[in-house]
């Protein structure tokens, strides 16, 4: 009896350490088949059972159709196997060939703000300074931008809603046109607080929030951080943000260091993100027809 308890306790510690869903399920059955334990230990065990139960419910919720729990019974259909193939591929939508480092240079993505306004958190992405202006390391920018494009294409493929942000009036029309051309959404005006965080009250109904927010600039017209950056983080919405040398990248899921003011650079970002979204959507249509 004592031995069994110690064994169970070891397993329990192991569960807490790994949070492995399979182990949770297994221990739950061990406890169920072991009902004559001492009362003082029962309480602990009941807690474990609750934990295991919660664990397994969450697992069921997270895995649609739970293919991982019973992989041998259900043969995955052609759609499922395509979906796993899409996720396993390192660059399924070949976002790598959407742009080159020279394209970044031609679009003046390397221009930062003046040295005096440098945000120290941007230091790792900076190449140097020239005539008092920060210059970005475009090799690093390219790497981050490709990652961002990859995730954008994947979200578009999964039928996610993408919301573009631009708070500079001189570039707003570019971003709005871009969003329209790829069938997504743009927000270019004053951001009322609570649009994400208090959506049900503000719109009077259950609201579907975007699945990805793309900030072409992360600052407002008065150079404070856009409130939607914080609100997206609060609501767990992934974000992509072009961060210039005076911006804080901390709250952004996929920061892309680069110039966020020149129309040439904004046009470039519009082109590449539109391309990534359209590639994702085209693939989705192809796979839906399977
Ligand atoms: C692209 O995104 C997918 C899905 O998130 C991921 O599985 C893949 O590893 C990513 N590729 C790269 C190169 O980051």
UniProtKB/TrEMBL annotation:
One of its GO terms (biological process) is translation. It is found in: Mitochondrion. Belongs to the universal ribosomal protein uS2 family. Gene3D superfamilies: Glucose-6-phosphate isomerase like protein, domain 1. This is Small ribosomal subunit protein uS2m. GO terms for molecular function: structural constituent of ribosome. It comes from Dendroctonus ponderosae (Mountain pine beetle). It comes from the Eukaryota. Required for mitoribosome formation and stability, and mitochondrial translation.
């Amino acid at each position: 009896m004592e031995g069994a308890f110690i064994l169970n306790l070891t397993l329990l510690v192991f569960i807490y350490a790994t949070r492995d869903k399979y182990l949770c399920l297994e221990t739950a059955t061990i406890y169920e088949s072991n009902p004559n334990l001492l009362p003082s230990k029962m309480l602990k065990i009941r807690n474990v059972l609750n934990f295991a139960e919660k664990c397994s419910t969450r697992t069921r919720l997270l895995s649609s159709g739970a293919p991982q729990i019973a992989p041998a019974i259900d043969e995955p259909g052609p759609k499922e196997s395509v979906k796993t193939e899409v996720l396993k591929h390192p660059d399924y939508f070949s976002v790598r060939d959407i742009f080159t480092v020279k394209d970044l240079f031609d679009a003046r993505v390397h221009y930062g703000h003046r040295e005096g306004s440098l945000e120290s958190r941007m230091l790792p992405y900076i190449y140097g300074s020239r005539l008092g202006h920060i210059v970005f390391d475009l090799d690093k920018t390219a790497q981050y931008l490709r990652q961002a494009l990859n995730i954008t294409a994947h979200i578009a493929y999964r039928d996610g809603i993408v919301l573009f942000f631009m708070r500079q009036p001189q570039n707003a029309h570019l971003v709005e046109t871009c969003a329209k051309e790829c069938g997504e959404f743009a927000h270019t005006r004053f951001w009322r607080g609570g649009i994400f965080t208090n959506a049900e009250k503000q719109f009077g109904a259950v609201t579907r929030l975007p699945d990805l927010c793309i900030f072409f600039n992360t600052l407002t017209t008065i150079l404070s951080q856009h409130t939607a950056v914080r609100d997206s983080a609060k609501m767990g919405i992934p974000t992509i943000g072009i961060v210039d040398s005076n911006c804080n990248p901390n709250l952004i899921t996929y920061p892309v260091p680069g110039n966020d003011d020149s129309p040439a650079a904004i046009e470039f970002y519009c082109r590449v993100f539109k391309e990534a979204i359209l590639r994702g959507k085209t693939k989705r249509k192809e796979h839906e027809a399977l």
